[in-house]
Write a structure and sequence with these properties.
The structure is a single chain. The chain is an alpha+beta fold. Strands 5-3-4-9-8 form a 5-stranded antiparallel sheet. A two-stranded antiparallel sheet has the order 1-2. Strands 6-7 form a two-stranded antiparallel ribbon. It folds into 2 domains: 183 residues, no CATH class; 49 residues, no CATH class. Helix 4 packs parallel to helix 5. 22% of the residues lie in helices and 21% in strands. The chain is globular, with a radius of gyration of 18 Å. Strand 1 and strand 2 form a beta hairpin.
């Protein structure tokens, strides 16, 4: 069993909210389809996260502060376990992995997209769309200002729709042309464990919050004022149980 990092809380630049580090959660892939954009070979994609199980995460994935009333489709929603080996994108040894959870996976994929954008010689503020460009990097033709979208939204090749759907359905060819458009996303989805395999998502832990039965993988913090949402979070015993539980799957799939 690998050593876990000391628990800390960290602000997600993608969500603008606080989230525990190195915990299990759901990562989802939502598209905003537009015919005009599709004709240019692109689709808007959001890579976002939730600290809840699948049902609650899917509900969360269809709305949010960065949504603008367009038509959204959730293509995939998969779990990420704690202490998953996630590659680093900085430092001398870029092949090194660090242990992380759903927040770290999200930040890794956002970083991967940024790398593809730079590799394609993308230009911030350009009226032209570049592959894997953040939506906020494109200047609006109407206002002349940088578009205001959440940090999680990207212009990606339209083939990413097939990649995500086929990876989720296990029908994609591993290492094939479609896979290689963005193998990091393909691996995140294709090799993800099933929800009922991840200890933190045990169904007996579900609590009904705001009409939805869910598990919240965040840690109950004893020094903070208790809230009604704490009923769905993990207590000290659950955290220890999840840490040492034997897994039937590898967490070194990225």
């Amino acid at each position: 069993m690998p050593k876990t990092k000391q628990h800390r809380s960290k602000g997600s630049t993608a969500t603008g909210k606080w989230s525990d580090t190195n915990i299990a959660g759901s990562i989802y892939f939502t598209i905003s389809y537009n015919e005009e954009l599709a004709d240019k070979g692109f689709v808007k994609l959001k890579v976002g996260i939730s600290n809840c199980d699948e049902v609650a995460a899917l509900k969360h994935a269809q709305s949010g502060t960065t949504y603008s009333g367009e038509h959204y489709v959730v293509l995939a929603c998969v779990p990420v376990d704690e202490n998953t080996y996630i590659p680093t994108l900085t430092g001398k040894d870029k092949k090194r992995c660090e242990l992380g959870g759903v927040l770290e996976m999200e930040q890794y994929l956002h970083g991967v997209f940024g790398g593809y954008f730079d590799k394609g010689r993308g230009k911030i503020g350009s009226k032209k769309i570049y592959p894997f460009m953040k939506c906020i990097h494109k200047t609006s033709r109407l206002t002349g200002q940088l578009q205001q979208c959440g940090q999680e939204w990207f212009y990606v090749p339209i083939e990413m729709i097939d990649l995500i759907q086929q990876a989720e359905q296990k029908g994609i060819e591993v290492g094939g042309d479609l896979w290689n458009i963005c193998p990091q996303v393909a691996r995140c989805i294709y090799f993800a464990p099933a929800y009922d395999q991840v200890p933190s998502f045990a169904k007996e832990r579900q609590v009904k919050i705001d009409g939805t039965w869910k598990v919240n993988t965040q840690k109950v913090l004893p020094y903070k004022k208790p809230t009604s949402n704490d009923r769905a979070k993990r207590n000290k015993g659950m955290i220890e149980q999840d840490l040492w539980a034997v897994r039937s799957y590898s967490r070194a799939y990225m």
